[in-house]
Design a protein that fits this description.
Elements: H1 5-19, H2 26-57, H3 61-72, H4 79-102, H5 105-126, H6 140-170
Length: 171
């Protein structure tokens, strides 16, 4: 289960500051920071899920090291560009198919949609700066809502990955 205590605390703090903003620019800064914070938490949470489960799938040290190297080189969490290649590296295509078949489509659909949308937001925000006030950035309150979808999806993903490992051990 992913720990969301600190990220929830951080996002709530940013939301309070957002609501109490005194200038036109402050809400934009707090919104941008909320997105960056959530994205950092997602990357750390995914790393923890993969690091916890990797030993269940790769028994030999050389394969564990190879997967750890791929995980270290992955900067992002887009479903197709980042997440799927890591899953395939860990469990193979057959494992990916089993994982997809066992997962709740609603939870995983919400997770993937939010991961992909947050990737786009983060990339746009990380490679620019706020020049004016015509920029639209999701508020920290909306980012808190995204946190719930992402955390529920990550918890489900971690559970299903653990179940897959147990299934493979029984074979």
């Amino acid at each position: 289960m992913v720990t969301k205590y600190y990220i929830t605390r951080n996002l709530r703090s940013l939301n309070r500051k957002y609501r109490r903003s005194k200038t036109q620019a402050e809400p934009l800064y707090y919104s941008k920071l909320a997105i960056i914070e959530l994205c950092g938490w997602i990357e750390i949470s995914l790393d923890e899920i993969f690091e916890t489960n990797a030993p269940k799938f790769a028994n030999q040290r050389r394969y564990s090291k190879k997967f750890a190297g791929q995980l270290d080189k992955t900067y992002g969490f887009h479903e197709v560009s980042h997440l799927q290649p890591l899953i395939i590296a860990l469990v193979g295509y057959s494992g990916l198919e089993q994982l997809e078949a066992s997962c709740d489509r609603r939870l995983m659909g919400g997770l993937h949609r939010n991961l992909n949308e947050l990737t786009d937001m983060r990339n746009r925000l990380a490679h620019t700066y706020i020049k004016g006030f015509g920029v639209t950035i999701e508020s920290p309150q909306l980012i808190l809502g995204r946190l719930e979808h992402v955390a529920n999806g990550l918890d489900h993903f971690a559970e299903q990955l653990d179940l897959l490992a147990a299934t493979l051990r029984d074979i």
